[in-house]
Amino acid sequence: MSTPWRAPTAASAALAAALGTGAWWAWCAWRRQRRQDGPWFLRGVTILDDLSPSGYREVDVLLGLDGRIDLVCASARRPPGAQVIDGSRKLLLPGFVNAHTHSSQMLGRGLVSPLPLDLWILQMLAVTGAAMEKFDSRAQAAYVAALFCGVECLMSGCTALQDHCFVLSFAEAEAACKAYKDLGLRVFFAPMLNDDKVLYENYVPRSGDAAARNARGERGGLGPEGSWRTEVGASDEAKCRASLALWEECAQKLHDPENGVNIVIGPVSLYSCSAKLLKGATELRKKYQLNGHTHVLESRGQKLEAARRFGANGGSAVSFLESTGFLEVPGTSTSLAHCCWLEEWEMQIIAQHHAAVVHNPVSNLRLGSGVCHVRRNLCNDVTVSLGVDGAMSSDGLAALGQGIQGQASPLPERCEAFGGDFYRQSLADFVPFLDLSVWDAQRAKNHCRVQGEACFVVQIQDGQIYILDEKTGFQSRNRLTMQMLQRVAAKFGPLPDAEFVVDTSDGYSHVEGPIFVIAKFPSSPGGILYPDFSSYAWPESECPSEAVGSHVWARAAARISSRASGWQEKSEQLFWRGAATSSYRKQVVPDIAALPFANVSVMTWVVGSAGQRQVVSSGDNSCVPIDEWCQHKYLANLPGHTMALALKYRLLCGSVVVSSPLMYHEWYYSQLKDQEHFVSVDFTWSSAADVLAALRGNPGLAEGIGARAREWAESHLTEDGFDCYWLQLIRLAQQHFPAPQLSSASLPIEAVALGHGHHALEGPLEVPQRQRMDVITVIPARAKDVELMDYARSTWLGVQLPGFTHRHFFIMAAADPDIGMLGHEEDLLLVDCPHGYRQLMQKMVMAYRLLLDRFEVKFFIRADVDSVLPLEFLLPLLPRAANGQAVVPLPASNCGDLGRWRMPSIGHLQCQIECAMDRQCHYFQVDSAGDCTTFTTCTPMKSRSAAVFKYALRASGDLELTENHDRPFILGTILHGNKVLINDSYNPQWNNLEYSQDLGLSVYPPYPEASGYAMSADIAAFLASVGMASLAQLQWKAWAIEDTALGTILAGLSFDLLQMPTEDMTEAIKLACLLSTLSSVDYRQWLTAKEALKLASEGGYAAMGMQGAGKIEVGCVADVTLWDLTAMSLLPRGDPASLLVLGRPQQGPGQAGSALHSSFVRGRRVVSGGLPLTCNLRRLRETLWRHSEPRATGAAAMDPLARPSAEMQRAAEVEYRGAVGLDGSEGPRQLSSHLALRTIWDYAGACLPSRA
User: Terminal CA-to-CA distance of the chain, rounded, Å?
Assistant: First the structure.
């Protein structure tokens, strides 16, 4: 059914005819380009209304092309040309302003130890420098950091931010401003500059009794020769001039309010800037009419220092700032960050000068700085806004911790007894897979089905364990692992519903997926470690002299404990027996055997027909039962193919385990400590002689290591330990993995254990009957492309050929904001994925899944909404390609000398492509040197030897197709190696290099007559098997594999880092609301949710000097956000403002909690479906991953050149503790009357009338 605003098909066709083909496509491209610019008509949105009984009302809103709100009223008519968004069930709010942040800290978040601000800042500087050094230049680092900061602000509802950015050059400032401009985000950019000679030295407060301490001879301070400072640190005249010059250059070259870039003069603080610098900054503000921004009274230390430093101003930082003229410059706005330690009369000074306070609740809590008294400021007519502050003072780690620690119920008491550290590895392993999507889980199952050599899928439902897709693998590992699962179920009752993949091979050096593995490199981005089969039994390791079943773990452990000798009874030998399962063992064992007192040799063994290990060597190389290993004081531990499963046995002996580096980790390795549970040597064992000599020379040390190892192993490596760890893994899988999906191939674990692998479940699941279809054409589209869809329907999509069943579908994202304006045409296929071009791959893969479920289809044709495909020519070629008759090898060895042209050494693939591009080429040949010749006709000759092929796609007449000869193929592509093949068809879009962002495939043979490509259904099924989270976030790398008949595809995926947001404005709003409860016992003084939203929007714009902004009113700037009231976090229906503020609206795009729908800045849409439209998130994440590395917090994360010396850090801490009275001294008295030192209940005061 057509909608009123849709152009009729006839009109579209008439316009195309009038304009001509080229102009028609140009016109369509222009329409697409302007789509995000508006004007936007938001129909039926909900807005806040204090005068309405419900507090809300529904209106229509028009965002004009001039960047302002042009219309707010009920039941308005859509203006001509306006794009429509259905606002029903959506809340329209003014955009939030992050009024104080530091983008330069984005690259080092999470790397500074918990410290008070005055000490934290010394570490922050060095960490930031080290993080920026990972980039090619500081300017590049500044751009990436600003982009990162801006993206996170956008995704939490911000439309503007104030970046108090630490820069050293104009190039850095220019790069950061460019990032915000690229994002379309309104920025107030304040280069954060200072002129203290020793950077931030004055941030450390001086002690009030410094002179007395010096007189007593106390040392350890920051002054000369360890004295305590009595004077303010000096300023640097040259630095002052340079800072003023940089501010002025930014003002002259970057200030561009019309395009969203506003330069702000931003001194660091009153402690690292001289009065001269502040006065010079004031003059620049007057000259260029620029806003000002700085830090004021953030910490208790700053309040103390102000009392000593600004004595001429009554000890007030605010009065001193007032004296410099910086507090108020007519025609501009001044904002002051933090203001946690203001006296009430200082608030009145701020109000008199029309300045604003920026409350930063997250960082104030992180650094223990104090709390800004919002209500008291408001009572004194101070404008209050909100900020998130820098990423290194609001690291944003809480959501991650809550996500992984949450459990439906505690573990059984016998499992809790092991303590939290016992399960630490399991929590870390699940971090990359929190809330795993169905499609990523399917990708792991595909690994087992297609690639796994020793794996199976575990499905637990209603207490019954099922096994799916078992690949037997090596030895009896699968069977023993399943028996462990049965033991866990018997011990702990019915297990929770869960589904996961278990791999029983030796392990992986690199694993990415959510697969349970025995061992992995610690740096692997994926893989979940589990107690392996040998924790149940290890029959293959039994010696021929041992009884069958002697290596069941419980028996082996009991026998080792009962026969383990006392330390004095053990021999001095270094003992090891094992098989040569790795080249490493073969290389290193002879060197170890040559060590003094070494009893080391390799056994020769084979695996018998029944799967048991059979030792065929004798004498010194014979098999030694495990319990006899314990007769020796020193046991060597050498990894096999990956790890050494026998390490757990060695730890039980009470001997010293001397181990090669533990490159591969098992599930319990993170709990083992070098020199406490084992002793490590270098990889080649060259240090072993010295290590063993030291141990033998200190027998008490050696005996202690062996005893601690045995004590730990006996208390942790038990049946209960193994089973409890498995239970923890299953619970985590239930919590974060999709629910199990049983199929007819799922087998009860009991049936598998009995060897009945061919039996299916009783009553197989019904599979819906699929409709048969020869060809389906899939066309990704947007609701806005309605004219193009109508044109395609009326022209080339209407072609039907005898003998072919053919359908087409336009693939639409359900998150498309304009989807409600479409009718109910049968050729529209909606898929549940984010909207936008960058989600194209994700959208198409979901479409293939849905279509393959509904249709039994042979071929897919992938076209674009502005394609014009000659289907009458293309369709007959598909069976030919499937029969391997697209490129046909001929028996001829040469086509003669009448070639069209020759090209040396280009190889088969390029030769085939060149033939495809030449319409007169029907044959080509490639000799052994890779020389290529193409021909129109082929006259077979045998004078030279070459491989000759017929390019049969141009052959006339029908071919006799062989039954059941279906080959996987992709036929026709626009690009090869990201280069345009040809430009002589209907579609000028062939010149559009953005096609490389589609599938990124380079396949052959190219089909230049089409603007899309065709493929067999099995290729579509391959694409459909890839996980959704991967497609949303990861980069495709695909390439063609040469085949004499046709091309096939291999695809690789590379993961990148997912991070929790730190620039989350919704979190700052929530904390501002909650922290107000600490400022007064009078609950009438607490902030309401709507008041907190007003601080974040109207307050933020007012602080930036944009009076009248931050409102949904005609004439206000069109910086607005649209929130989905049907999001899980805003349900059930009630007070959406309260849920938005006090709930958790930002749980990630596409997740149940995500509520942000769209954001508009200056009337232009910059966010859709919760994701920014102006940034390639995959590339940003890849860039951040490449330019960072795992680092510990503190000194390890710092730039060595900028790192404060250990002596300086100690001295700073000594003076700080003395200044604030933490060293046992009498402490400061200057704050005895300050509000922040009174109890919070004493601070209650009425300044507003009572509220009902």
Answer: 51
Is 842 within 8 Å of 822 (Cβ atoms)? no
Pairing status of strand 632-637 against strand 613-615 = unpaired
Distance CA 1235, CA 1115 (A): 41
**pLDDT the model gives residue 955:** 53
Q: Look at residues 394, 401, 400, 405 and name the one whose alpha carbon lies nearest to residue 152.
A: 394
Give pLDDT tens digits for 61-105: 999 988 999 999 988 888 888 888 888 889 999 999 999 999 988
Neighbours of 718 (CB within 10 A): 16
Whether the link from the prior residue into 1132 is cis, omega within 30° of 0, is: yes
Q: Is the peptide bond before 870 cis (omega within 30 degrees of 0)?
A: no
- With CA atoms as reference, report the closest residue to 382 among 353, 340, 341, 343: 353
Residue percentage of the chain with pLDDT more than 70? 75
Structure tokens at 830: 């909606």
**DSSP one-letter code for 1097:** I
Give the C-alpha separation, 50 to 343, whole Å. 32
Q: pLDDT by residue (tens digit) across 549-565? A: 778 888 888 888 877 77
Spatial CB neighbours of 642, under 8 Å, sequence gap ≥ 6: 506, 507, 508, 509, 518, 519, 664
Task: Convert the pLDDT of each residue in 98-148 to its tens digit.
Answer: 999 999 888 877 677 667 888 888 778 777 777 788 888 899 999 999 998
- Only one residue has tokens 């009718």, namely 823
User: pLDDT of 650-676, one tens digit each?
Assistant: 999 999 999 998 888 999 998 898 999
1058-1079 burial by CB neighbour count: b if 16+ within 10 A, else e?
A: ebbbbbbbbbbbbbbbebbeeb
3-class secondary structure, 875: coil
Tell me how far apart the alpha carbons of residues 7 and 902 are, in angstroms, rounded to a whole number: 52
Three-state DSSP class for 754?
coil
Cα–Cα dist 946/926, whole Å? 6
Pairing of strands 186-193, 261-267: parallel
The whole-angstrom separation of Cα 238 and Cα 1129 is: 54
Using a 10 angstrom Cβ sphere, with 0-12 exposed, 13-18 middle and 19 or more buried, the burial of residue 942 is exposed
Residues 454, 475 contacting (CB under 8 angstroms): no
Count the alpha carbons within 13 Å of 502 in the hemisphere toward its beta carbon.
29
Say whether pLDDT at 492 is over 50: yes
Cis, bond preceding 39 (omega within 30 deg of 0): yes
Burial of 967 (0-12, 13-18, 19+ CB in 10 A): middle
Which 3 state secondary structure label does DSSP give 732?
Answer: helix
Alpha helices in 202-299 (DSSP H): 210-215, 237-253, 275-288
**pLDDT: which is higher, 1170 or 839:** 1170
Single-letter residue type at 1197: A
Pick the range with the lowest mean pLDDT from 399-403, 489-493, 592-596, 634-638: 399-403
Q: Looking at the whole model, is its pTM more than 0.90?
A: no
Residue type, 1072: A
CA atoms of 603 and 594, how far apart (whole Å) = 17
Compute the 3-state secondary structure of the chain and give helix, strand, coil in percent, each to the nearest 5: 40, 20, 40
Q: 618-643, pLDDT tens digit by residue? A: 555 678 888 889 999 999 999 887 87
Given a contact cutoff of 8 angstroms between Cβ atoms, the answer to whether 876 and 1024 are in contact is: no
CB 92 within 8 A of CB 78: no
- Cα–Cα distance for residue pair 58/1125, rounded to 1 Å: 13
Q: Determine the length of the chain.
A: 1252
CA distance 106 to 143: 11
Q: Of all helices (H) and strands (E), which one includes residue 856?
A: strand 855-862
Low-confidence winner among 108-117, 222-231, 358-367, 759-768 (lowest mean pLDDT): 759-768
- Rounded to an integer, what distance in angstroms lies between the CA atom of residue 332 and that of residue 337? 17
In degrees rounded to 5, what are phi and psi of residue 397?
A: -95, -10
Q: For strand 1013-1016 and strand 334-338, is the pairing parallel, antiparallel, or unpaired?
A: unpaired
